[in-house]
Amino acid sequence: MYKLRSYQQQAVDSTLSYFRKKRLPAVIVLPTGAGKSLVIAELAKIAKGRVLVLAHVKELVEQNHLKYESYGLEAGIYSAGLNQKDSTQKVIFGSIQSVANAEDSFFQDFTLLVIDECHRVGLEPDSQYAQVIKRLKLNNQKIAILGLTATPYRLGLGWIYNFSHRGELKTREMRFFKHCVYELPLEYMIKNKYLTPPVKVDIPVTSYDFSELTEGSGSYTMAQLEEVLKQQRRLTPLIIKNIVDITESYQRQGVMIFSSTVNHAQEVMQSLPEGQARLVLGNTEDSERDQIIEAFKNKEFKYLVNVSVLTTGFDAVHVDVIAILRPTESVSLYQQIIGRGLRLDTNKKDCLVLDYTGMGHNIYTPEVGEKKPSRESVPVEVACPECGFVNDFWGIVDEMGKIVEHFGRKCRGAIQKPETYEFTPCGYRFRYKICDQCGSENDITARECCRCGYTLIDPDTKLKQAKLSKDAHVLTPDSIEMLERSDKNGNPYLQVKYYDYDARYLSEMHYLNNATALKKFDINFLRSHLRTPEQRVPIRSVDDVLKIQPHLRMPSFVIARKQGKFWKITEKIFAEELGR
What we know:
By secondary structure, this protein is α/β, with parallel strands linked by helices. The chain has 15 helices and 31 strands. Strands 4-3-5-2-6-7-1-12-10-11 form a 10-stranded mixed sheet, with helices on both faces. The protein has a 6-stranded parallel sheet with strand order 13-18-17-14-16-15, with helices on both faces. Helix 2 (36-46) packs across helix 3 (58-70). The longest helix has 16 residues, at 6-21. It is globular and about 90 Å long. The relative contact order is 0.08.
């Protein structure tokens, strides 16, 4: 009989603890190669009623079933693709397509539903998953629903669940899965030698430039991707030659190449050694795909090229080179791709990761959730000053790794009641804008006040209105200067000058000579200008401000309005406020 690893047992225990108190759908996040089939097997074995294990491809159905029965356990398969439709066993491994078309009698007596690669489950009421779950609940309203995935973050959607087991609010938006009850980082698996170490090779010759696709605010289309690749077509033969040279020089056994589009994959194939490469596409017929994969596993050819079809549900343990020729903004998907080469195998010491996208993902970094704000941004850990929760945000670090600036807006921490699994979000805001009506703090992108509903004018509209007004002046700062001045009565004050590229400037003044003035300065200036706004900086004089000037940032725009003969700064707009 099999023996669970410690983390697998923790995953099982966490699941049991959760379902004893809650029956909302839950998720386990395990990296590729962590042995989720063992977790499934243990939960299925100890379940009191019948268990249905669903997957979206027949390869996963067969893989999970074979692993389950290899432990001396018995189970059935319900999959047209595998030519089996057993509905009598206590444990059934099924494909979602076949189960969705099953007779009503099939859905009797199930107490646990397990969904492999559960990031595919959405909220669409007419999806096959939704229809199957609805039919299962007609027979048992309290059925426990558990999803397993290595990629809990989907581009275009975000996190697939609401609350993390470590007390983090991932999203307030509606999700089918409510709680992540257990999560294991990829780094743990590699550090403890459960997976082959990846060795990332810095760009050996060249890389594609996908910056015009990934640095904008929106997602890119397949047509845009095709156009970028068309412009850089001359690079493909150079890149493939580099892959082949490295493979031969280091005597590698199996290479998986992840290309961007079908046309791109066909270009890649033209440059690979004849007879040593095969291509798998989304429309490759099942029988041909099975034959190609089997031949690759038997090492009959060395280079397997694919377009978005072998990122999950595929294992060839001898793979020791992963070549990435497609852009992705998702760290989870990036890690999933690399995971194809991390399975342990005899005489396999490491897996080379050749990244030709120039995107600079780190194999071990967490998925932050927001779009990367700049090329130099890296994931940073920022503790909330209110609840102490350590947030993963994008940020800038110095040469010593110390955080210089971060781009977090709101604490994701939440207080959980262990007995009920109920979460109360922290709600602390690192960045915010104040409602003019009620004084409440709002998200910097909010269009109406979260408390009173007052319409908040967005920064883009403010800019447009100011540029059209004769009584307003918009300045784009290039530099900032801070000076200590004195008024005619000898009272010191801080003068802040914002200069544009033509050395024109707008200025503001701040007195810091009493408690009220210091509080106004903190609210009106310091909180928005600090690169790390959660810092508590003791300011008692102008000199104190001058000392911390390196820790202050410039706004993207300064708006001033005419007051008599002078211009008075009325608004400052920072980069994160702009919907661009």
